[in-house]
């Protein structure tokens, strides 16, 4: 009955559509009461929409929607139809979008980060104008990021990327009376426009060589299983295709804040409201990586592409991963501003995730790609929680340097205990969730080294940078728990913001729970990686 009323493809995209519908509800609420500052209603609508999207995405993933091994009796028949059960990825709109385990995995990441940010913003945005606009833009950006997870064509990827980016520019600069926020938004916009131009140019070159935009169609041309739509011999245009791939990598590097397109991240994260910094550094980064993973594993098979351009594209990601890890961590170690330290730390973690593509080989690489996906999920909790702690400090009027954070544990022991969990998890110390994801990245790198010895350098770089990160993460823990407050500074802060506390504690609990419960996460990530690598 449901399928007769609503097309199956719309229901398969339910996690994304719920976010879009929630944004529309917020727009309607604002149009009815444009001067409303009803924070409970606005934050509640945004949080409920994100939680519903999360619940649906988790339900779909557990049921095996879009998986080759889905149980026909348990698959969501009312969503995809019984004929789809166990049939693998669900192609929608002529292959322009796809719902598979990888798409659902990253829809979960986007939804859970959006929910935490919406709840935390209830307190943080108190007293600020543009309340309804803030939550509407947040949900619109989340819609774009969730759409990126299912995008299966270069044109839908670009449209989803812009849907995620345009609201993000406004969110960064939404504190209109704060010069730093406006300046950060302008810088973010200018660098974003430049990188979008590079990305579109790369798309045009790929289209010019292959005559297609849909990822599987591009792969068919590259492997010689189909004639190029442009009617020429692809093997004779390796240079042009290689240049197109390089420009695509540049566009993705911006979205994932990878070197050398990382300069916007410290500026944007420092000037933006802290919950938006958490949103961009976690959900936006995950969305950037899902399209990066999908494009290169699906559209450009490693061996066939190497024969055309004369070089395996994994070499570019090896260089990018090493440079991004190293630059991010060494820059973070020199910061005195806590927010900028976390921003550069975010750059370093982009380098860890890049190992997922650097470690792919002709024979596979499911473990290392799955490990990168695991890391992005764990990172969504621990990094979001770290930035939300900064939001709590900003809410209380605490300064931005390490010294300003001295002795905060005497005022907020629960939040500071959560901060310690985030910091040690980001460093990859057991028994926290970040340990397992880095462990799988390391073992995956060693496994890939049998086919590509350069991965030994990547594995060594991962260990060295993780050790370095422990220095600046523990420095913040030391400041809040051990160092005495600066003399003359009043520590009698007002109130205990419920929303911020709830989001921080939830993120800390999930960071702890993920280590003993990492089995299902690892299975889902590796299954999703296996599907795209094999295909």
Keywords:
mainly alpha; globular; 535 residues; disordered N terminus; 2 strands; two-stranded antiparallel ribbon
Outline the structure in words.
This protein has 535 residues and is an all-alpha fold. The chain has a domain at 315-535. It is 72% helix and 1% strand. Strands 1-2 form a two-stranded antiparallel ribbon. Strand 1 (90-92) and strand 2 form a beta hairpin. Helix 6 runs parallel beside helix 17 and helix 6 runs antiparallel to helix 21. The two termini are 33 Å apart. The model is unreliable at 1-5 and 71-86 (pLDDT under 50). Its main location: membrane. It holds the Pfam family Proton_antipo_M. Keywords: Membrane, Transmembrane, Transmembrane helix.
> How much strand content do the residues show?
under 5%
Would you list the SSEs in sequence order as H and E? HHHHHEEHHHHHHHHHHHHHHHHH
Secondary-structure-based class equals: mainly alpha
**Count of DSSP-assigned helices:** 22
N- to C-terminal distance: 33 Å
* Topology, number of strands: 2
């Amino acid at each position: 009955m449901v399928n007769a009323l609503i097309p199956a493809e719309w229901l398969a995209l339910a996690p994304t559509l719920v976010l879009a519908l929630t944004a529309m509800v917020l727009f309607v609420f604002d149009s009815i009461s444009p001067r409303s500052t009803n924070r409970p209603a606005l934050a509640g609508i945004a949080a409920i929409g994100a939680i519903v999207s999360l619940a649906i995405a988790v339900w779909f993933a557990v049921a095996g929607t879009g998986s080759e091994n889905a149980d026909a009796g348990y698959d969501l028949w009312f969503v995809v139809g019984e004929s789809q059960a166990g049939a693998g990825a669900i192609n929608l709109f002529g292959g322009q979008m796809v719902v598979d385990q990888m798409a659902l995995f990253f829809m979960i990441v986007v939804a859970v980060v959006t929910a935490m940010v919406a709840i935390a913003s209830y307190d943080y945005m108190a007293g600020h104008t543009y309340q309804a606009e803030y939550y509407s833009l947040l949900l619109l950006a989340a819609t774009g990021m969730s759409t990126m997870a299912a995008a299966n064509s270069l044109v839908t990827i670009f449209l989803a990327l812009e849907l995620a980016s345009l609201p993000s520019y406004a969110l960064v600069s939404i504190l209109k009376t704060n010069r730093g926020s406006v300046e950060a938004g302008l810088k973010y916009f200018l660098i974003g426009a430049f990188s979008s131009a590079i990305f579109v140019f790369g798309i045009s070159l790929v289209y010019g060589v292959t005559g297609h935009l849909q990822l599987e169609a591009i792969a068919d041309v590259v492997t010689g299983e189909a004639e190029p739509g442009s009617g020429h011999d692809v093997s004779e245009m390796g240079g042009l295709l290689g240049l197109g791939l390089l420009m695509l990598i540049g566009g993705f590097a911006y979205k994932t804040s990878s070197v050398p397109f990382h300069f916007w991240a410290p500026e944007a994260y420092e000037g933006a409201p802290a919950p938006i910094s958490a949103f961009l550094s976690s959900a936006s980064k995950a969305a950037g990586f899902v399209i990066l993973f999908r494009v290169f594993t699906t559209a450009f098979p490693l061996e066939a592409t190497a024969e055309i351009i004369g070089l395996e594209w994994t070499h570019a990601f090896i260089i990018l991963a090493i440079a991004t890890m190293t630059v991010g961590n060494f820059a973070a170690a020199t910061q005195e501003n806590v927010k900028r330290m976390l921003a550069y730390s975010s750059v370093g973690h982009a380098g860890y995730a890049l190992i997922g593509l650097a470690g792919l080989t002709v024979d596979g690489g499911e473990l290392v790609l799955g490990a990168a996906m695991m890391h992005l999920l764990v990172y969504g909790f621990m990094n979001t929680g770290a930035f939300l702690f900064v939001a709590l400090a900003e809410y209380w009027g605490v300064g931005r340097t390490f010294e300003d954070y001295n002795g905060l544990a005497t005022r907020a022991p629960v939040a500071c205990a959560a901060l310690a969990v985030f910091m040690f998890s980001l460093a990859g110390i057991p028994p926290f969730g970040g340990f397992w994801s880095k462990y799988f990245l390391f073992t995956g790198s060693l496994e890939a080294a049998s086919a590509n010895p350069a991965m030994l350098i990547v594995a060594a770089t991962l260990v060295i940078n993780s050790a370095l990160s422990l220095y600046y993460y523990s420095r913040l823990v030391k400041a809040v728990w051990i160092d005495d407050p600066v003399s003359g500074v009043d520590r009698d802060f007002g109130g205990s913001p419920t929303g911020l506390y709830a989001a921080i504690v939830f993120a800390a609990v999930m960071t702890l729970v993920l280590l003993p419960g990492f089995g299902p996460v690892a299975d889902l990530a590796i299954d999703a990686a296996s599907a795209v690598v094999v295909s």
